[in-house]
Amino acid sequence: MERITIAAVALLLLPALAAAQGVAPSNEAPTPTLPTTEVIGTTPLPGVGIERDKLPSNVQSLPGPDAAKQGPGALGNALDQGLGSVNTNANQNNPYQPDIQYRGFEASPVLGTPIGVAVYQNGIRLNEPFGDNVNWDLVPDFAIDRMTIVPSNPVYGLNALGGALVIDMKDGFNNPGGEAEVMGGSFGTRQVTLQYGKSAQNFAAYIGASGYNDEGFRELSPTQVRQLYADVGAESDRGGFHLNFTGANNNLVGVGPTPIQLVDIDRSAIYTSPQKFHNTLAMGSLSGYAVASDALSFQGNFYLRSAGRHVFNGNTTSAQVCDPSIPNTLCLGDPFTVLFDTSGHPVPNVLGGRIPGEEDDSAITSLDLGGSVQGTYTAPLFGRNNHLVLGASIDHADVDFSSTNELGVIDPRTLIVSGLGIIIDQPDGSLAPVRLETTNSYYGLYATDTLDVTSRLSVTVGGRYNLALVHLIDKIGTALDGENRFDRFNPATGAAYKITPTVTGYVGYAETNRTPTAGEIACSNPAKPCSLDNFLTSDPTGLKQVVARTYEAGLRGRFKTGADEAPGRIEWNLGLFRTDLNNDILNVPSAIISSGFFENVGNTRRQGIEAGIGYRDDRWSLSAQYSLIDATFQSAITLSSPDNPFADAAGNIHVRPGDHLPGIPEHRFKLNVDYAATEKWTLGGNLSVASDQYYFGDQSNKNPKLGGYYVVNLHSSYRLTDNVELFALVNNVLDRKYATFGTFGDVTAIPLPGVPKPTDPRFISVAAPISAFGGMRITF
After folding, report:
1. What is the pLDDT of residue 22?
2. Within its chain, how far is the Cα of 688 from the centroid?
3. Which of 14, 44, 241, 435 is geometrically suited to a Cys-Cys bond with 475, CB 3.0 to 4.6 A?
4. Is 253 exposed, middle or buried (0-12, 13-18, 19+ CB in 10 A)?
């Protein structure tokens, strides 16, 4: 550990030593552009935006991720470090599989997570059609030009309960020139990224590729990521088009939570293995715009997307040797429930005294196509400036889901699961192979209009009609067959008032909805719980769609400081928000090991405070952000939580109105500092502080919380020449030992190496220890 710290400090000080020997301090660092207005898009489809000060919500923007400052998995780290209301947890302990929360709503790669954030790349919806989850590893972070987080707004369609993340990609117009970057460091990390953009008159092209490998800081957790992004386009004053392609072929290991008693012995330990994900993507899209007049323009896109997800999980199981009255036979759960294979025969006792386990194998393949079209009309209305957008979208997907559960045995030393070649197939369908086809069709019609009532007051009204058709076809039997239709019109309104030329107040109201996904619909029977990514069962009652109503109000401002020849700029914001949800959907654990089901849980609420201030001049860039997120249940409900120490005899807990939702820190504080010491040497860092949170499965708030934490990261870069730059970064420089995700599990299911008496049901996903990375960037 001392060697890592010494090496890390040396990497950071290297530019300083070089500067001291050969470069005199200079105050001639480039002066940043300080625009007086910022134009923000107001729809998923890129088009003609409006001034940020006219928006009735706390819209925030960030530049694209930078691996030299944010390290591996730069996309998640950039959002976590740069936005006050964003929190990430390392449920899977993989830098490319973060759970990203915004205002207490999640966008996660973990299938079964209730998704409350819509994600768009160049106007294309990235929420996967089977579970609305977001596979962040399929987004090439090196090719991101800008990211914008938009609070709850119906124009962004399904899942924008908390808000929408809009990602704009690079092209040859906005990113000309070439760049080659290599990075390496802790945990066997190595990454190579190449990108090049070129424009010639009205035409431009861009291409970039990245290869990443690491061995992981947990045992048996290597990662391999391969990403590609390309764009060709033509633009003129009257119109243009862009044709682009996104590709990925990634092998990830998400080791997940580990019993806390095992973590106390070894923070790199894992609980059952393998936990492998193979994600692939091939997506092409065509977007274009046409300018009909100074006031009227049209935008549109079309995409075709093929994605694959293969999950191979080693898990515990409730399979065991049957009661002596059924000799030489295995049973599932209850000792009298005989285990059957796919031939319909009882499974003999093949364990030989070994620890039983399961290899759960599932695959999802989807073929998506869709598009959007919209018109933007910017012309005076009643003698006042007016900005009107009308649009329509369709997203259609055909999905194939399959899964099997193979009986296995667990090595007591390594906890690795090995299959025995016997596929479990229970006659009642509680645990059996699944082959399911789903067809999802999402239609949307939307409009938004912003009118300048006066030179200071802008009023926005809008809305969207959503129609979701989800068709399920069971390819083995009929239990999963179903037709589901959900529709709703969601309105929005708000106003922004310029109190002074540099201070704006805003107030807004919006309604949004999310519909049950195919995965949730097919896994909502408490009597037949599912292990998501493994299998599904029948749906006896159906699920209701979730409806969110968001209120927010706040102030924001900006002003210049210092002399005119060397100005600085201060920006600040202070806001309040409340989002009330009806018929919220949660994934509820079952008494059957590693399984659960989905159900509507009544009403929930997320409310809080967002505050931030930033300063920037030609040498300094500083920002501080604070958020308070109070996430609570508003209905009295009874939930299954069999491993919760406070569960009743039936394995249930009783939630009261006012109890807090698990997994959401109430307080978050972030501080970011960058300083240009010379024209060639920059250094900086960030501090993140999070308060404690309740464990998942403790919705009744009876157990001690998962502890809060603070973490410090440092980075530095030195420009050897105009085209060659060295960089280094150290994450968790104080080597803080903390966890970002906690849940409950059956700690007695298998023996734990080194733990003679496993009694604590808490499982946690630990954060990475101190780590150092460095590299070189060449521009041309």
Report:
1. 37
2. 18
3. 435
4. buried
Taking the C-alpha atoms of residue 260 and residue 723, their distance in angstroms, rounded to an integer, is: 48
Q: Map 204-272 to HEC letters.
A: EEEEEEEEEEECCCCCCCCEEEEEEEEEEEEECCCEEEEEEEEEEEEEEECCCCEEHHHHHHCCCCCCC
Give me the pLDDT at residue 605, please.
98
Parallel/antiparallel/unpaired status of strands 163-169 and 117-121: parallel
The pLDDT of residue 477: 86
Per the rule left: phi > 0, alpha: psi between -120 and 50, beta: everything else, 333 is left
Report d(CA 506, CA 454) in Å as an integer.
15
Longest dimension (CA), the chain: 91
Q: Is 18 helix (H, G, I), strand (E, B) or coil?
A: helix
- Domain CATH code at residue 527: 2.40.170.20
Task: Say what the pLDDT of residue 540 is.
Answer: 34
Which SS3 state, helix, strand or coil, does residue 755 take? strand
Range of the domain at 250: 2-779
User: Residue 479's pLDDT is what?
Assistant: 83
Q: Per the structure, how many domains does the chain have?
A: 1
Instruction: Please list the ranges in the chain whose pLDDT falls under 70.
Output: 1-37, 334-335, 524-542, 589-596
Q: Could you tell me if 80 and 122 are in contact, meaning their C-beta atoms sit under 8 angstroms apart?
A: no
Q: Residue written as tokens 């609070």?
A: 151
Q: How far apart are CA 331 and CA 338, in angstroms?
A: 4
> Residue 668 in contact with residue 690, Cβ under 8 Å?
yes
Question: How distant, in Å, are the alpha carbons of 3, 39, 383, 386 from that of 454?
Answer: 63, 19, 10, 11
Cβ(617)–Cβ(567) below 8 Å? yes
